[in-house]
Amino acid sequence: MDECTTSSGVTKNDIPTNEEAVNNLLGELGDSLKISNGADQKVDGEEEDEEFKDAVDQLLPDAEDSPKSQSDDYIDEEKLKEKEAAYSEEDLKRLKEEANDFKLKGNQCFKIGEYKESALAYTEGLRICPLMYNQERAILYSNRAAAKMKIDLKESAIEDCSNAIQHDPNYVKAVMRRAQLYEQSEKLDEALADYQRVLEIDPSNKEASGATRRLPHEINERNEKMKTEMLGKLKDLGNMVLKPFGLSTNNFQMVQDPNTGGYSISFNQNPR
């Protein structure tokens, strides 16, 4: 089997699953994604990106699109705990080791630029890694987020980072990765909060330190721009309403109270 083959090397009896259909899908994906040395495998192209998005959607469906029971990533935790209760300690460790093998495959694919195959390998690892192993699942989620970042699946990558943080709140790589994704998505307030969280965990982090000094200014600039645009639209609307009365917004003057920050409006019959 090639290094980056994502089809599982274990049997159905070895892996606790929810739906046979998901297993069949993974098998088909694994067969179609085998590569030889990675040299002749395309990593770009709109059609392949859509195929990958469709595959991820089927493996990790949104709650409103399909039942949670169809994906181990969204499985009810109580159900998963019940299943794990039926396994021996040896079985749980074996599943963790198999999940680690998928993680290593994902890492290898990532190193050679096969990001889609990397993400699918991490997905298979998440499917079999017992929920009790929080750190292992956090790493799989965070690594998969890194792979998705490379193929511009920002929103899905943010979700993976959030899942990683849920499993390990102090996992600084996942928090940092989510902060970067938020900033790239122009969600500056969320990005600043994550960078601040990074500094709580690791005060020596230079990137987070720089971001916490830089982002407040960018947020203020954004807010001022939004306020100017909003006031401009309100002025246009006001002029449209006042025009039939021979008035315009120039007849009204807004004065800001320096103490409260609030505004008062005065009327001028003959504006200059």
Automatic annotation (TrEMBL):
Q: Which SMART domains match?
A: TPR
Q: Does the keyword Transmembrane apply?
A: no
What keywords does the record list, in alphabetical order? TPR repeat
Segments for region (Disordered): 58-80
Q: Does the keyword Cytoplasm apply?
A: no
Query: What's one Pfam family here?
Result: TPR_1
Positions of TPR repeats: 172-205
**Compositional bias annotation for Basic and acidic residues:** 65-80
**Record protein name field:** Tetratricopeptide repeat protein 1
Name its species.
Ranatra chinensis
